[in-house]
Sequence to fold (839 residues):
Amino acid sequence: MSDPILSAPAGPLAETTPGAKGGVAGPWSRFRADFAESRLALFGLALLVVILLVGLLAPVISPQNPYDLAQLDIMDSKLAPGERSADGSTYWLGTDDQGRDMLSGIFYGLRISLGVGIASTVFALAIGLVFGLVAAYFGGWVDTLVMRIVDIQLSFPSILIALILLAVLGQGVDKIVIALITVQWAYYARTVRASALVERQKEYIEAARVLALGQARIVFRHLLPNCLPPLIVVATVQVAHAIALEATLSFLGLGLPITEPSLGLLISNGFQYLLSGKYWISFYPGIALLLTIMAINLVADQLRDILNPRLRK
Amino acid sequence: MLRTLRLALAALAILGIPALTSAKDRDVSIGLQAAITSMDPHYHNLSPNNSMMLHVFEPLIKRDANQKLVPGLATSWKALDDLTWEFKLRKNVRFHDGSPFTADDVAFTLKRVPNVPNSPSSFATFTKPIVDVKVVDPHTIVFKTAATHVLLPSDLASVMIISKLHGEKAATEDYNSGKAAIGTGPYKLAEYVPNQRVVLKANYGYWGGEEPWDKVTFKILTNAAARVAALLSGDVQMIETVPTADIAKLSADKKYALVDKVSNRVIYVHLNQRTDTSPPYVTGKDGKPLPKNPLKDARVRKALSISINRQAIADRVMEKRSVPAGQLLPEFFFGTSKKLQPAKYDPEGAKKLLADAGYPGGFALTVHGTNNRYINDDKIAQAIAQFYSRIGIDTKVETMPASVYFSRATKGEFGYMLLGWGTESGEQGSSLRSLLATYDTAKGMGVTNRARYSNPELDALISEAMSTIDDKKREGLIQKAAEIAMNDTALIPIHYEVSTWGTEKGFRYTPRTDQYTLAMGLKPGK
Fold:
């Protein structure tokens, strides 16, 4: 099954894509057909699109700007879902302990969660990619050095590293993104290196070397595109991880300022009211977080199945 | 085999369990919110420690539930002149090991207090004014002070008397292990496990009469939800500091009883007046520093005070477990003024004051506070930020753990500091002196004046009050000082914390203003 011919289809494809447009339609439509095979994945994708739209459009569709303190009223605090405020507006999902509309809070929270998740993944991917490729391509002491750093990093629990970093860096969205990048880049480096080591042995790389192409060109134009499939899968799963990690950090009170709560902070605010029956402060942000992570994971699962040559029929 | 086992179990059920329950009736467990850092009574001046020490040790003078001074190991005391105090000691008092208590133990205690190695917060502040100790007879002792010291009886209420016999060679570790923790109090120390529990056994020969409990176990449950869960599961029979979020639920449940009392702790705001230009985190709306420090302007300070809706904070954030404050102590304490009522909520008036002071469009500031020290501290900070946003001040909130916060606040790194202050002496004069007198550590003035507020008129009144032994005259001076300070909005009082204790039905706790949780206050009965 591990016949190189079987695992190669992406190789020659990607090789031709940059230059020739004609070859694009075929694999793309096959990819779409493969993806649509699973209804669950389609559902996940649809959900993800809705969540992304909500996050993007939060300022437009939210009844209130939950981060503008002048719009909050402490006299409206802890209202149950569906209750009306003093000025007549209805809080469909209730309010939290500061009188913040939960619906708006969740919309804005999704925006932060997705933003943090995607930003940290993109940067971590870029950093991990470069280090992984360099390690695999050059081998020797470079490989040893990079991979030992990766080993050391991976031997610590990611939440611990993030906690230490935030304790040092302080509060802010940018600080959370930095912490998440630091935690995640090692996964990508390792994944890229593994697949690059396999690809490096193949004939097309040898051919490129024989043509005396520059090293940077070989690494980024030839090696990189063929290492992408596993990376795409890891990245999708890692977005979900990053979102969960951000929620955990916020729940612990690190990271974001308390006047600009993300989903984790909203859940943590409501946590202490659970025993007294005010479930909605924690419950609805929790559902939103759950749906987001579930949708991403459904899509990621299907991507893995499609891009994994061993599972291909 | 199985049958014998069953028989044995049945026998146990008949014989053992009734015996066990009757013993258990006199055992009680109490959930505390903060760890006890040491069982050495002179090591760490910290409320949870001081509260725990009162079970094993006793001071010369005690405080009742309202912090009025009452006789402890001394039966009476009086000032012979401005610099000399005479204390008559209680007779027939014995330490836990049976040795008698005499004036020598008091003299030994006063000698030890300033000499405890590595003390993180020393009790020497209470004994420093005493320059000479004279033992007249085994039950009479005379103290000399260098200057008039009106708070001497109050200070001595914070100093636990230890046994000379057991204390002479003892170090802090010997108190923690229990070897030297031999006092005259109603309970003996049985076990001390840092961060987990303190177990006490009754001292049956106690001079004040026997306590209703044979064994008291204090469990350290710092997490509020865990503390409530422990009460609900029957693991403890009483908890202190019931979280406000759970008050509604517990008071609706007939199996539990809640008692509460306004405390001596005021939540207040210090406004940084150290600089003539913009203090840290106070800027114009464009983020640039202001040419003048707005917090030095009494009109701005007043605007910042009257724009806070204290009643809304009490009702909504504190679940009615706070009392809006107009000074530093609730009205029934010594030195408080009836004229000082909580500032009325007046956002329009605040806007006008800001305009008068030259900030018609407001400015920007960051509210800094703790998130784990006072009841709902982070929520209060956010509520205040709401009120300020409405009068045109761009407000941010940053909260942090107390361990980080206090050292930074003391260095003056914040502009707007949300803080709390418990007045252990029960006299408003000592709070004014610590918080608002001009900063001068050598004179012991303004030692906790993190704002560096300075008002010579106020300083003069505080100094005069603090050297007037006559109670009536002193109270008048303190009231006048408080009025001057509050009318100048020297600081912004928010509210007095109300402390809440929760017990199972069948227990009754006498709530205290000093927030102490004492087994002596817990009695069986409705």
